[in-house]
Amino acid sequence: MLAQLQVATDGLPLPSPDASGDELFRLGLLYSTGQGGAPLDYVSAHMLFNLAAMRGSVEAKVYRKELSEEMASEEVAEAQRQAREWLAHG
Q: Which of 14, 22, 79, 82 is most buried by a 10 A CB count?
């Protein structure tokens, strides 16, 4: 999976435009738990679960919903904005 990641300007991995729903889901898990070298970042995790759900991951829909219940509405809105931006530039 890491071979298909790009690196953002802040050093965090970003999924490649052709990442599958499963790859996006697994990366979202890393951010939602702070494991695998990823920081604990609910906004990034929500964004990745959202993208994974759009690419067919049923699990991502469940995790996205659960995570959104732990987040402020502003954080959810930011995650959605970042997902739209990734889609536009991917």
A: 79
